[in-house]
Design brief:
This protein is an alpha+beta fold. Helix content is about 55%, strand content about 15%. It has 3 domains: about 45 residues, Helicase, Ruva Protein, domain 3; about 90 residues, Elongation factor Ts, dimerisation domain (Tetrahydropterin Synthase, Chain A), CATH 3.30.479.20; about 40 residues, no CATH class. The longest helix has 19 residues.
Length: about 200
């Protein structure tokens, strides 16, 4: 199917992906922009997976202090080159993720960062909550509740506060696909007035 330049431009403006990538995604989906967005998102995740082992020694440390001065965040986001670290997109995402940490108060960056004993403790609590249900249903319920737990405590699993249709990891993957470099949040610290850590 031939895809109009207007549609390609619209998809490019929405995603920042290359013209050829947008054209391919639209051709695959017969011009359906929503499906093309999903195709590009999946490709971004695949690219991110391939790049995840590459070393990230450059990046930024950003600071965000909430307007009332009661919450502050320091966040380190890394990439492979200082060229990418200096781009507006990289800086903006790092700053917005610091705001995300201020608003949503995650405890970990990724699922893999949650200590196994914490995961087991959560599973035990969930099993206890549904112990009267049939055994074959219990594990499904526990897994569902565990996913909700990860969405609350892991930055990458949280819904992005500026666009709830995406998770933070989707934004990271989109930036990886766009820049061709590995990008990741390495660490953050959140301070709240009167909270002793």
């Amino acid at each position: 199917m031939a895809v109009s330049m207007d549609l390609i431009k619209k998809l490019r403006d929405m995603t920042g992906a290359g013209i050829m990538e947008c054209r391919k995604a639209l051709e695959e989906t017969n011009g359906d922009i929503e499906k093309a967005l999903e195709v590009l998102r999946k490709r971004g995740a695949t690219i991110a997976e391939k790049k995840s082992s590459r070393t990230t020694k450059e990046g930024l440390i950003v600071a965000y202090v909430h307007f009332n001065g009661r919450i502050g965040v320091l966040l380190e986001m890394n990439c492979e080159t200082d060229f990418v670290a200096r781009t507006d997109e990289f800086k903006e995402l790092a700053y917005n993720l610091a705001k995300q940490v201020a608003a949503m108060n995650p405890k970990y960056i990724r699922k893999e960062d949650v200590p196994p004993e914490v995961v087991e403790r959560e599973k035990e609590v969930y099993r206890e909550q549904v112990k009267d249900k049939p055994a074959e249903v219990v594990e499904k319920i526990v897994e569902g509740k565990l996913e909700k737990f990860f969405e609350e405590v892991c930055l990458y699993e949280q819904k992005y506060i500026f666009d709830e249709t995406k998770k933070v990891k989707d934004l990271i993957n989109e930036l990886i696909a766009k820049t061709g470099e590995n990008v990741k949040v390495s660490r953050f610290v959140r301070y709240e007035l009167g909270e002793i850590g």
